[in-house]
Amino acid sequence: MATPRKLQQRLRWAIAWSVMVIVAVACGLLGGGDAPFIRAEVLGRAPETLLLEFSGTVHAGVTATVVLRTIGSRDCTRPGPVYVSGSGMVVTLEPYDTTYVGHGECSDVAMLFPRAVNVTFPDSGQGTIRIIGRRESPPAVVTVDREVEVH
């Protein structure tokens, strides 16, 4: 039978080991989990309908749904939120992703991640949807503007 001192020592080791495992998992040291949100990679030179798609006519003061597509690794990228801001006839979309942090490599197989986003233009005329994302190679923050006719 273990003495009270031995039991107390084992309990301290068990608690210390548990704390180390919890910290390692929380920090992603044992693999798995997601990294913080990063700017999504956008297709700045892609055909307009591949990057941004909206159907029908956009009317002033009426919310329209547009589909924004970003690109990332099939295995390691997960789409995150899209922040919408703007004033007047310019609406800014800032898509973010998470990148899987784990054991092994991410494949080079790219995948498009569509996201439905609601936008509203207050007046008739020429509107701009500005997309702020990133480019992987060479690494840079990129801004892509798409014009839309608002009726």
What does this structure look like?
This protein has 151 residues and is of the alpha+beta class. The chain folds into two domains: 1-30; 38-150. The chain has helices at 4-26, 48-51, and strands spanning 38-39, 41-42, 52-54, 64-73, 77-87, 90-99, 110-119, 125-135, 140-150. Strands 1, 5, 6, 8 and 9 form a five-stranded mixed sheet that branches. Strands 2, 3, 4 and 7 form a four-stranded antiparallel sheet that branches. Strand 8 (125-135) and strand 9 (140-150) form a beta hairpin. The longest helix has 23 residues, at 4-26. The protein is elongated and about 85 Å long.
Q: Concise description?
A:
This protein is an alpha+beta fold. Helices cover 18% and strands 46% of the residues. The protein has two domains: 1-30; 38-150.
